[in-house]
Every structure is written in C-alpha cells, then in structure tokens.
Amino acid sequence: MSEQPPAGPPDKGRRNTGVTGLRDRLRDAIVAGEIPANAGRTQAQLAEFFDVSRTPLREALRMLELEHLIIREPNGRFRAADLSADEIEQLAVTAITLESAAVRLTVPDLTIADDARLEGLLAESLRLAEVGEWNAYEVPHRAFHMLLARNVGTMHTEQLNRGWDQSIRYRQAFGRVANAAGRDSAPQREHREILDAALARDADATARLVALHHRRGMGEIATSLNPDYETSTLDKTIEIITEDHHPQLA
Amino acid sequence: MSGTVALIRDRLRDAILSGKLPPGQPATQADLAERFGVSRTPLREALRMLELEGLVVRGSNGRFRISPLSIGQIEDLAVMRINLEAVAVTLTVPQFGHAEHAKLEGLLAQIERYALVEDWVGIETPHRDFHQMLVSGAGDRVTALLAQLWTHATRYRTVAFQQLEGNAAGWGTSQLEHRAIVAAYEAYDAEMAAGWIAAHIARAAILVAAHIDPDHPVTRVHESLQRYTGTPDLPEVPSVDE
C-alpha cells in the first residue's frame, strides 16, 4: 500500500456538492477500499482527492465517524474502520431480524408486477455474477432484497438501507478474497429459493429463507475475519426469528 | 468541532421529539432558519435527513412539515422494536449474573420512587437505563439502534402516559410488566422475558394507536406479539405478588 493518496476523485462526473452527497462519495470510497484501514489520510489529502473544500469535508467525516465507518486517529488523520467479526455479527443480527420481519409483511402483498420485477432483478444479478461484475451486481442484488421488504414504513425502510450501507463493505472486501478463490453459487441458489417461496406467497418460508441466507453469508464473512468465530449468536437469532414461541405469561 | 448540518439535524430532532415543534405543524424553511439562527442550505439538508428518519414529511407542494403522529409510524416502530428487542433480550438473559440482576432491581426501585412523587420527567432516566440494560448483551451496535428507536418512541410514549389513562395508572401497569421481565431474567427464562418485552412494547403501541384513531386496528402489532407470546391478544397484567 502506498502512502500517497490515489490520483483523482473516484467519480468527478457526479456534482452533488452537498454534505450528504460528499458523505455518500466518501462512503463509496471506503466500500471500494480506496481509503485503507492501515494508512491514515490527512484532511488536506482527502480534500484534494475529492476536490472539495475543508468545511463540508470535515462535516462528512464527522457523519461517517458516527456511522463507525471512519476512525479519527490521535494524530488527526482519518482511516477506514477495521473490519471485525464482532461488527458483522451485529449487523447480521439486525439484518436478519428487521429484514425477515419486513419480508413477512410484504410477501402477502406482492403483485404480479412485483413478481416480474423480482424475476428480472434475479436474472440481471445472475448475469453479472457470471461475468464477475461484483460492483454492478450489488445494484440488482440490493433492489431484489429491498423489493421483497417494501411493505413497511419509512423508518423501517431507512434502517434496512442503513444496515445495507454498513454491511456492503464487508461483502465487497470478502468478495475480493472470494473472487480469487472462485465464488461458489450458494447465494444465487438461495435467491432462487427465496423467490420461489415468495411466488408461492408463503410469507413464513420466504422470511425464513431470507434469514438463513443472511446467516450463511454474514457468518462466512465473520469466519473469514476470525477463524475461531463462534456462530452461536447467529444460531440463536435464527431460532428466535423463525420458530413459534409460547411462553406461559401469567 | 461538530458539523453544521448534523448539529442542526440534532437540534431539530430534539425539538420534534420533545414536542416543541408539534406533530403536523408546517416546517417552513424561512421560519426554521430564523428560529434556529441558521442559513437555508444546511437547514434543507438537515430536513432531508430527518425525512429519512420519518420525523418530517414533504407534501406534494414540496413543503416540509413535522410528521403527524400516525398509526403507520406506531406500527412501524412497534414491529421493529418487538422483533429486535425479543432477539436482544434472548441474547442477554444468559449473560447476566447477580450484579446485573441487582442493578435491574435498583433501577426498578428508582422508577417506583419517581412514580411515588409523580416526577414524570425524572422517571425517564431510570426507565431508559432499565430498557437499555435489558438488551445490553446484544452488542453496542444493536443497543445503539434500539436506543435510537427508543428516542423516536418518546413522542408516542408521552401521549401514552401523560394524556391517556393518567400517569399513575399507566406507570402502575408498566411497572408490573417490568417486574415480570426482571423475574424472567432472574429465572434465566429467555423465552418468558422475550414474551413480556413484546407484550410491554405492544401494549403501549396499542394504547396510543387507539387514542389517535380508534377505528384503525394495529394488526401488525398484534401479529408481531403473537410470534413471541403465542397469541395476538395482550396478556393479563401480571399479579402483584409475582
């Protein structure tokens, strides 16, 4: 890794100069691994890299600090937060819980047009997976998951999106490793099973398959970060989310 | 130094949650800019962030207003909280020992004391600490998310306790449920604890929803409740000797 900042902003074409726009560009750069975790950047370097002035930059950095994506080092430099098995586990607990709850509410409400769109998104993501376009793949992949969870309110949707934003860099970092080793087709197979359950309008089965899909994917990432990782928390989460409970409340 | 947009967003959020900017009130940018002594550009951005959080809404004319208290939002919050807290509680129960149980008892005693002297502002601190402690074993990220949902629920909780059945009666029911939750923690019965936390959240949501619109049943809250208690109906309030 070079100590010099890479040349040029990642997407000079986009002209959203607002703080939130800048925050999103910074987040994209972290996800893409362009701001490394092992080498801090000064504000001046980042301002030059993104071609922005210091005031909005400072604010965008502060927002990403609150999202736990960026760490301010004691010397005032910024680096990407480390990936940790503990963090991805917590993101998995949240995603499994909130997404399967949303899916359960959405499936009975799906329309024929939704079914067609879901088939379209699946075909699109399959094609991109075949050619290994993993950045482009994330677009239909995310749209597939969000469409299956669409029938909830603004706040719930916002949490799903935020969780997705935070876990995406784990998937990308893990993907860079997995690509080298040749990716397996488990996710694609699971997406097909999820969609089949949704087409059958089986809300419980769809919610369960989505939960297991996240459990496998995020569990693999946690294990790749820490070979001694224990899956008991994720197993417990799956158990409580997918099984019926009948405690005898007094 | 903290950012301008984030700062404005936080101040606006506080004003909305505390009711200083009442539900349904138009939030014109000129008024808010003057009231908070800020310029329009960061204000607009802060409003957009709060829109994503569900605290302001934008009408078809593009104008912002403070989100009205809505059945939809009550359901949204309750569904998220019931499911997440049931999981978090299940993960936390086996991690607690005597020290944590004693701390929970201590917080309950504090709540009781505030209720006795009818200090409905002071009571919020031990009440929040109690609920945060119940989920503390799920990790700091999950806890932070639940704390955020708690803050949003404050708008509704205020209605539940201060405008409805009277503070004392409301807190009485609540406190009996708190006791049932602690009893389940002490018995290491995670399923029972999750059931009571689900019932506790559902009861408040159902109460407030009925106040806002008695003709609109909150089916989703009942469905979520059923997953953790086996029945869509609220359980009887636990008896005092428990």
Secondary structure blueprint with pairings:
The complex is a heterodimer of chains A (250) and B (242).
Chain A: H1 19-31, H2 43-50, H3 54-66, E1 70-72, E2 78-80, H4 85-106, H5 112-130, H6 134-147, H7 154-181, H8 186-199, H9 203-225, H10 232-242
Antiparallel strand pairs in A: 1-2
Helix pairs in contact in A: 1-3, 4-7, 4-9, 4-10, 5-6, 5-8, 6-7, 8-9, 9-10
Chain B: H1 4-17, H2 29-36, H3 40-52, E1 56-58, E2 64-66, H4 71-92, H5 98-116, H6 124-134, H7 140-164, H8 167-186, H9 190-212, H10 219-229
Antiparallel strand pairs in B: 1-2
Helix pairs in contact in B: 1-3, 4-7, 4-9, 4-10, 5-6, 5-8, 7-8, 7-9, 8-9, 9-10
Task: Explain what the structure shows.
The complex is a heterodimer of chains A (250) and B (242). By secondary structure, chain A is an all-alpha fold. Chain A has 2 domains: 19-80, Arc Repressor Mutant, subunit A, CATH 1.10.10.10; 85-242, GntR ligand-binding domain-like (Four Helix Bundle (Hemerythrin (Met), subunit A), Up-down Bundle). In chain A, 66% of the residues lie in helices and 2% in strands. Chain A contains 10 helices and 2 strands; from the N terminus they run αααββααααααα. Chain A has helices at 19-31, 43-50, 54-66, 85-106, 112-130, 134-147, 154-181, 186-199, 203-225, 232-242; strands spanning 70-72, 78-80. A two-stranded antiparallel ribbon of chain A has the order 1-2. In chain A, strand 1 (70-72) and strand 2 (78-80) form a beta hairpin. In chain A, helix 4 runs antiparallel to helix 9, helix 4 packs parallel to helix 10 and helix 9 runs antiparallel to helix 10 (232-242). Chain A starts with 18 loop residues before the first helix and ends in an 8-residue tail after the last helix. In chain A, 38% of the residues are buried. Chain B has 242 residues and is mostly helical. Chain B has 2 domains: 4-66, Winged helix-like DNA-binding domain superfamily/Winged helix DNA-binding domain (Arc Repressor Mutant, subunit A); 71-229, Four Helix Bundle (Hemerythrin (Met), subunit A). Chain B contains 10 helices and 2 strands, in the order αααββααααααα. In chain B, strands 1-2 form a two-stranded antiparallel sheet. In chain B, strand 1 (56-58) and strand 2 (64-66) form a beta hairpin. In chain B, helix 4 packs antiparallel against helix 9, helix 5 (98-116) runs antiparallel to helix 6 (124-134) and helix 9 packs antiparallel against helix 10 (219-229). The radius of gyration of chain B is 19 Å and the shape is globular. The termini of chain B are far apart.
